[in-house]
Design goal:
The complex is a heterodimer of chains A (324) and B (282).
Chain A lengths: L2 H21 L3 H27 L7 H16 L4 H23 L4 H21 L1 H4 L5 E2 L5 E2 L2 E2 H4 L2 H24 L1 H11 L1 H6 L5 H26 L1 E2 L6 H14 L6 H16 L6 H15 L3 H21 L3
Antiparallel strand pairs in A: 1-4, 2-3
Helix pairs in contact in A: 1-8, 2-8, 2-11, 2-12, 2-13, 3-4, 3-11, 4-11, 12-13, 12-15
Chain B lengths: L1 H28 L6 H18 L2 H24 L7 H23 L15 E4 L2 E4 H23 L1 H11 L1 H6 L4 H23 L9 H16 L4 H21 L7 H12 L10
Antiparallel strand pairs in B: 1-2
Helix pairs in contact in B: 1-5, 1-8, 1-9, 1-10, 2-3, 2-4, 2-8, 2-9, 3-8, 5-6, 6-8, 9-10, 9-11
The chains are: A mainly alpha (324), B mainly alpha (282).
Chain lengths: 324, 282
């Protein structure tokens, strides 16, 4: 992806977001979209780990929930909200990088089980330390009346919040697009495809892998912050492994090979859940079947399927133009 | 003290029945079955329905038998078709299966807690070193011991057991020696699934049935198979007993950190020895 293409896609995405902002007036639809976009950022975090590192995490809710708890606790300690958010993300980057140095050495499926265990440790800790986190009841996050110079009542209007989340999503995707297009992206891909060979050509493989883990944690943490802003609340549910599983499902169904696949998966997930309406009580079975179907028949996910359809049509057009 | 050790043994025995299935399936198919806890839950609920219609003893045989058929089908139309795919792909398929079974159970049996009474024969209390303990729980320990002993003898001394051990080490070479590894895998996955079902039926009279029962047990089971070494039965037996004891004693003496102990154990083992205690196999 060239820089022009990244800039072009971002411009189109921002126009689409502005269109939704201007034309959609239904509060329910806007809040549904906002939720979908927040989870799209979450799924991007899980997806980048799979795409650049080839590692499946069953415990990314850890970063999603911890971001909410961290900012909530810092606000309780009378930090300014802006500083609390920055400190949360910076702290998460450092902690995840150090953690990554240790855990990315564990190969394959065992890595997934390890992340599951670490995530579940935090889930249980948060559910049990009533004094600090409110235990299983969760805790409210006391946002101050103004945030980044905007008053809270303006910021939390459904349309404004949607626009904020949308711009965050586009921003994250632009940064990822540029970063993964750089030397860093190529190094991580080389390490993912064959770590030993990458070492032979003089790449130190542990640092880039830990860095990808930290990057994926920070993106997921950002989604956690948006969610904390959206709901003003965080509970152990935000740390539970089933949430990690749902995010992973979005990544796989959307398709992790394309950068935008996980985001597509998240939007499809929420739209489908809403569309199902009364049948939504059976969402687990429906998404279970969808997950298996996509894995078996289209391992590159919906994004891969769309790309094939578009390319197929283009090929047919070229074919016809040549008069065969 | 006696009662806590005893309860540790009971939970350890339950984990042995669960994890031997998980380890067998991993050994032959290299699949970490995320749906194993859901299969356990399905077995428990099937056992409940059968026990309500007939009695507990019929359920004890019939529910695992139904689960065995399910397991054979799962291998034939699931794992066998996916055997050349990336192992992580298959893990995700079992995760999809987990979602489907959870939904199925909630739809058929509802979300409220159900309970199965212990059979009349075992409903009495027995005096154990001065502490009265339910006879049923002693029977659970006996079932766990029988499963462990039976599987060990079967793998060690029978011809099929030899094939299973060979196929776990190298399926291609085993197939070249004339062993039908597809049929072998189907029977082993069937056996593993039946063991999950058996664990469910056995657990029903002393743990209540609820849709949350699967996620509690699957995470403990993962801890066991990882600590014991993926695919190693002996390792899983030891780790199951250790975890049962840690859970039971920790809940009494270290109530604040007890729930974290299994995970600390698992994280430490994975980082220190990624192949587990008994694991030399990759």
């Amino acid at each position: 992806m060239s820089i022009q293409r990244v800039a072009g896609s971002a411009a189109v995405a921002l126009v689409v977001g502005a269109g939704v902002f201007a034309w959609v007036s239904s509060g329910t639809l806007l809040s549904l979209l906002t939720q979908a976009i927040i989870y799209a950022v979450f799924a991007l975090g899980v997806g980048v780990l799979l795409r650049q590192n080839g590692m499946v995490s069953f415990g990314h809710a850890l970063f999603f929930g911890c971001a909410g708890y961290a900012v909530g606790l810092l606000l309780q300690a009378q930090w300014s909200a802006e500083l609390a958010m920055l400190a949360t993300l910076a702290g998460m980057a450092v902690v995840a990088f150090v953690m990554g140095l240790v855990i990315v050495r564990v190969p394959g499926v065992a890595f997934g089980m390890l992340t599951l265990a670490i995530g579940q440790m935090f889930f249980l800790t948060a559910s049990r330390s009533r004094g600090l986190t409110g235990g299983a009841d969760g805790m409210n996050i006391d946002w101050p009346s103004t945030l980044f110079g905007v008053s809270q009542s303006v910021l939390l209007k459904p349309a404004n919040l949607f626009l904020l989340c949308w711009c965050t999503l586009v921003g994250v995707m632009v940064l990822l697009g540029l970063l993964l297009n750089s030397r860093f992206g190529r190094i991580t891909e080389a390490v993912r495809d064959n770590e030993e060979r990458a070492r032979f050509i003089g790449i130190r493989t542990l640092l880039p892998r830990a860095a990808v883990y930290a990057l994926s944690a920070v993106i997921t943490g950002l989604a956690g912050l948006l969610s904390a802003l959206n709901t003003g609340f965080v509970s152990p549910e935000n740390l539970h492994w089933s949430l990690s599983g749902v995010a992973l499902m979005m990544v796989v169904v959307g398709g992790y090979k394309a950068l935008w696949g996980p985001a597509l998966g998240a939007v499809v997930y929420f739209m489908a859940k809403d569309f199902l309406g009364d049948y939504a009580t059976h969402w687990m079975a429906i998404f279970g079947v969808a997950l298996i179907t996509v894995i078996v028949f289209s391992p590159t996910g919906l994004a891969g399927l769309l790309e094939r359809v578009v390319k197929g049509k283009a090929a047919v057009r070229v074919h016809k133009a040549h008069g065969h | 003290m006696t009662i806590h050790l005893f309860n540790g043994l009971v939970y350890g025995a339950l984990l042995i029945i669960m994890c031997s299935g998980l380890a067998l399936i991993y050994g032959l198919r290299r699949v970490v079955n995320f749906a194993h806890g859901s299969l356990y839950m399905l077995g428990a609920y099937l056992g409940y329905s059968i026990a309500m219609q007939t009695n507990f003893w019929v359920a004890l045989v019939a529910a695992p038998a139904v689960m065995a058929v399910f397991g054979v089908l799962l291998d034939r139309y699931g794992f066998r078709l996916l055997q050349d795919r990336d192992p992580l792909t298959v893990v995700l398929v079992t995760f999809g299966l987990l979602l489907i079974i959870e939904d199925l159970v909630q739809t058929v049996w509802g979300k409220s807690n159900l309970s199965v009474p212990a059979p009349a024969l075992l409903s009495a209390s027995v005096d154990l070193l001065g502490t009265p303990v339910p006879a049923y729980r002693i029977a659970v320990i006996a079932v766990g011991a029988l499963v462990a002993l039976g599987l060990s003898l079967w793998l060690r001394y029978s011809k099929v057991g030899l094939f299973v051990r060979a196929a776990s080490t190298d399926p291609t070479t085993t197939a070249m020696q004339g062993v039908n590894t597809d049929a072998l895998s189907a029977s082993v996955v069937g056996l593993g699934t039946a063991l999950a079902g058996l664990a469910g039926v056995v657990a029903a009279p002393f743990l209540s049935l609820s849709p949350a029962m699967s996620s509690d047990v699957i995470i403990d089971s993962f801890v066991v198979v990882v600590v014991g070494g993926l695919g190693s039965l002996a390792g899983a037996f030891v780790a199951a007993m250790v975890l049962g004891m840690v859970q039971a004693l920790g809940a009494v003496y270290l109530p604040d950190v007890a729930v974290l102990l299994p995970f600390v154990l698992m994280v430490a083992i994975l980082i220190w020895k990624p192949a587990g205690f008994a694991g030399s196999r990759t």
